[in-house]
Each structure stands twice: as structure tokens, then as C-alpha cells.
Amino acid sequence: MTITQSAESPEPVADGPRPVDGEPVWAETSAAFTELLPQTRRALLRRLAVGQAEGRAPSMVGAVVREGRPVWMGSRGSVEGAAPHGDVQYRIGSLTKTLIAVLVMRLRDEGLLRLDDPVGKHLKSTPVPEATIAQLLSHSSGLTAEPRGPWWERTAGELRPEPADLFDDRPQRLAAGRRHHYSNPGYALLGAVVERLRGGTPWYEVLRDEVLQPLGMARTTLDPQAPHANGWAVHPWADALLPEPAHDTGLMAPAGQLWSTPDDLCRWGAFLLRGDDRVLSASTVAEMRTPAVPPEENGWDAGYGLGLQLVRRGGRRLAGHTGSMPGFLATLWTDPEEDVAVIVLANCTSGPAVPTIASELAGIVTAHEPRIPEPWRPLSGPLDPELLALTGPWYWGANPHALRLRADRELELAPLSGAGRGSRFRAEDDGTWTGLDGYYAGETLRVVRDEQGAVSHLDLGTFVFTRGPYEPSGPVPGGVDPEGWRV
């Protein structure tokens, strides 16, 4: 179900099922603040219209997901003489990589591979056996950007029938792990890893069974299925069109083969924000959004995680991917802080700044209608008095911090002086906590007790937190001056 605005209609039309009173289904969820205001919808449609007109795209579709639900779709131009709708396929190019990355992370979560495994452990014929799975996911393996041979996106995959045919005699252009260097053949290798660890099943069949079907993405396919847009090149100096080829790219397909629809990509955007335990947990999806390579510039505005591009736009951090194939442009950005995903698709090789349009659509939603936070609720279940006793002020030296108890026995440590390091901590079965973010990510927090069993202090990666600032009797490493505080 999508909420559409076409080139002819200034107001949205709900194309999903309706209850008997005629209101669209999404109106029933207005208490969750998913319905967009008319002025927001108009601003979204105008930005899409400007992008399509200035970029001279034969057609362009945009969609917005908020709080896990599609709340707007707009289109300009036409496909086969009609305004495109949510079920029209476009080729999505490198958005395909995000789906391949999810398959790889599923294998990791199942224990079938490790991210630091060299790819040669799973593929015996690769010319770069030392490149790790994580490096391939994050484009930090140093592999060549493109495969050997003619322009792979415009030629048939039969030209490169074997994995060795993807690489020339110098497959690695840069030292592995040192910097970001986009590599399409790297994702061809990841697709082969998926097939190898799934017993030889083709990667698309694995994707269909393990990801697309659970998420209801039946219209995301390896080859185009009607209704679909045709790909066009637009003449740079005249309003004329040239059809672009749409070859099966063979072994390179995991880098950019898939076709999908606005409706399906809305489901994918919701998944990349929230996860789905049938496919990947929310924590693993969040791990994919973590920067995996150092920035190229001073203070990064773009980076890469594990299969996801990361950008900063208008003070917001977005995660997702851009995509292009001959005749098509695509972008999907998610804003986890605002719980918003935006999709923009066009059927032209170049012209419209689709990534910018998508980020600005996200900005319109967050500027016009910033997210309303969830209501505060008390913790559920019985309250552990020992955990409650740990909360309150703690001091790292003389620097005050507050320890708070959250849901699921999670702890949060935050500095109170405006300077210092904070983190959230996940409870472990052995009575310790593991840092989830910030400086202390992955570090262990322990509650240390004295001989009588009373809490003495907190040990956080060897840093000692005491109940008072530099207490003379406290277990402060190096001791405390016996004369104490003075003026």
C-alpha cells in the first residue's frame, strides 16, 4: 500500500484497501503520527517535480516511509503512457549490494563465516584470497573498481563466464584495509560466497527464500517483469531519448542486477531502519550502519559501513545506498534518528541528482514534521533492587557521571560535567555489561564488591568509578593524597 501523488493529482490517492467509510487504511494509524500533513505532501511533490523537470528524466518516482509505514508516494513523467505507480519496476543498480550484504550478515549470525575470514577460506579460485569478508562488504579490500573487459553494465555476462575472468593480472589496486575504494567485483565475490555456503544454491534463490519472501518483496526480481520502466539515455543538448540495453550481467549480478518497485523498496527501507527477526535482528542492521573505513576528508560527510553507504546531509546522518545502471538511477536513504526512509527512482542514465533529491525529501519530512517521541513508560516487570542501588552518581576521579537503569537490565553511563565519555551497556549472562557505543563500545563494565559483598566500585576497562570524588579510602589506582582536598 502506498500513498501516491501523480503528475496530474495535487492531493494523495490511497491505492491500498479501504474500510467501508472510504478512509484509507493508513488513516487508522494516525495516532502513531504516520499520516503526513497536506503542506508536507505538497512540498514533497514539488521537490520531486523540480528534480524530474530539471534532470529531464522520462519518469521519476519518490516514496517516504515513516515509523515502518509508507506515508507518501509521488510520481512525475510516464511509463508506457501512464503515471508510474508503486508496482512499476525500475532497475535499482547498486541497491542490490544492500541485499547481498544482508545475506552475508545472516551467514555471520548463523556462525557459518566470520567477518575477518579471508575470502580464500570460502572461495578457492579467487585471485585475492587474503581479502576479508568485512573488507569486501565495506569496499576496503583494495580490489579493482571494475571487472576486466568491456563496460560490464552494458555487456552480457557471458563475456566473463568464470570468476577468474573478472580480474586482470593486477586485481588489487590498493593495500587492503587502508582506505575506501569502491569495488563492484568485490560484491561478485560476496555473491559467490553466499552460493558456496548455501550448498551451491544460486544467490538470487537464497535471497528470494530468506529475505524477499519473508518481507513481502515479491516484485523484486533478477530480470524485469511487467509492468516495468524501460531505461533511457537523454541527449545532452536536445530533448531526445535513446534506449539503453538491459543485459543479464552474469557473475557481476550481485553488484547491481536487481529490479524492484517503490512498494517493495518501502518494505526494504522499513527493514533497514528496524530490522526483522525473520531476516536480521535490529542490532545487526544497526551494526551495518557503523562506519567501517576511515573518512577520506577532514570531518567526514560520506563513508561506508557493512554494505551501506553513509552520508551527512543537513546535519542528519543517513544510511542506505545509491544505484545506477544504464537507463536507471536509484537511491534509498534511511534516517534512523527520525525513523524515516526515502526512495527515489528514475529511468535515465544521467541527469537528475537522485541522491540529493532523496536526501532533500527526507529533510522536508523532518523539517515540516519532526518525529514525536514515544511516550515515557516505566520499566516493566519486577524491579531488581540490586540494580536500582547501582544507579545515581559515580565519579571517575573528580569527574561526575550518572548511571541509569534502562529496559532489559541495560545501563547507561553519562558524564554530568559536559565533558567525559558515556555509553550504553548490554547486560551479559555472567553479571557483567558490554559497551554498545562511544569510547567504551565492546569494553566490559564490572561491579566490584568488597569482602563483605558490598559494592566497592565500578571497573570499566580498568577505569575505576567510585561513589565519591577521589575518596581517600577508595580503590583509586595510584592512591589519593592523604591530606585530601584543600583550599
TrEMBL record:
<dbReference type="InterPro" id="IPR001466">
    <property type="entry name" value="Beta-lactam-related"/>
</dbReference>
<keyword id="KW-0378">Hydrolase</keyword>
<dbReference type="InterPro" id="IPR012338">
    <property type="entry name" value="Beta-lactam/transpept-like"/>
</dbReference>
<dbReference type="Pfam" id="PF24491">
    <property type="entry name" value="DUF7586"/>
</dbReference>
<feature type="domain" description="Beta-lactamase-related">
    <location>
        <begin position="51"/>
        <end position="353"/>
    </location>
</feature>
<dbReference type="GO" id="GO:0016787">
    <property type="term" value="F:hydrolase activity"/>
</dbReference>
<feature type="region of interest" description="Disordered">
    <location>
        <begin position="1"/>
        <end position="22"/>
    </location>
</feature>
<dbReference type="Pfam" id="PF00144">
    <property type="entry name" value="Beta-lactamase"/>
</dbReference>
<feature type="domain" description="DUF7586">
    <location>
        <begin position="384"/>
        <end position="467"/>
    </location>
</feature>
<dbReference type="InterPro" id="IPR050491">
    <property type="entry name" value="AmpC-like"/>
</dbReference>
<protein>
    <submittedName>
        <fullName>Serine hydrolase domain-containing protein</fullName>
        <ecNumber>3.1.1.103</ecNumber>
    </submittedName>
</protein>
<dbReference type="InterPro" id="IPR056008">
    <property type="entry name" value="DUF7586"/>
</dbReference>
